[in-house]
Amino acid sequence: MTQNDFLWEISKNPVPYPYAFTRMQDIAQNIRAHDARERVWLLEHPPLYTAGTSAKPADLFNPNHYPTYDAGRGGQWTYHGPGQRIAYVMMDLHHPHGSVPERDLRAYVHALEAWVIRTLAQFGLKGEIRDGRVGVWVIDPKTGLEEKIAAIGVRVSRWVSWHGVSINLHPTLADFDGIVPCGIREFGVTSFHKLGLPVTFSQLDAALAENWRAIFGSQPSAFTPIEAE
Question: Where are the active-site residues found (predicted)?
């Protein structure tokens, strides 16, 4: 892979989940067939809940009757909605990418975590991971409470990844009350804005792109606009 082989795409308007799912699936198949470029797709979704392969029906409350979808990724229930940056990563894991050796799923997940943590640090946030708890966590300096600021859920089909990470910029945090996020009842969720950081999507996207190469070894392309059909 050359330094300029990783395509970065961005959707400015909320993307319906079924469209995103089908598009990711098609791109993953085409990457495997060497007919598409690996990529990061930045987007938002309208309010919805997705179920991972370990999701429990009892962990879904959904008082606002948002749509629910079976994502087929690892993990449990996750909320997506406006104000949350989704970064779907479609990568051919047959080949090494920076710190990720070929065909090493554990290293790939750790690399996604490291990418988010480096990005948070650019805004003065100390992101951390915890054994037995998926995602990236921060401690609110005002309350001392540990809360999740980013979720990670991946799916790998014949060693091509799809799905990815979600980072809470300024979503409606009350919507997380419609589920037990990732099956974890003891801890809450937070966002940049809740922590007093009025960061914009443009600023967050730029930081994600800036920190990509240090983890994955490739230079992001310019953002390519993608409109949902």
Answer: 182 (acyl-thioester intermediate)
**How does pLDDT run across 22-53, given as a tens digit for each residue?**
999 999 999 999 999 999 999 999 999 999 99
H helices of 91-200, in order, are 105-121
Nearest to 211 by CA among 141, 122, 101, 130: 122
Q: How many C-alpha atoms does 203 have within 13 Å on its Cβ side?
A: 9
Q: Does 164 belong to an annotated binding site? A: yes
- Condensed to tens digits (0 to 9), the pLDDT of residues 142-189 reads 999 999 999 999 999 999 999 999 999 999 999 999 998 766 666 899
Task: Please indicate, yes or no, if residue 157 is contained in any of the structural domains.
Answer: yes
Residue 76, domain CATH: 3.30.930.10
- Let me know if 213 is a catalytic residue: no
Of 146, 198, 183, 166, the C-alpha closest to 57 is: 183
78 has binding-site annotation: yes
The answer to whether the annotation marks 73 as part of a ligand binding site is yes
Q: Is 66 annotated as ligand-binding?
A: no
Count up the domains in the chain and report the number.
1
94-121: average pLDDT:
97
Q: pTM score, two decimals? A: 0.95
Report yes or no: 80 and 153 within 8 Å, Cβ to Cβ.
Answer: no
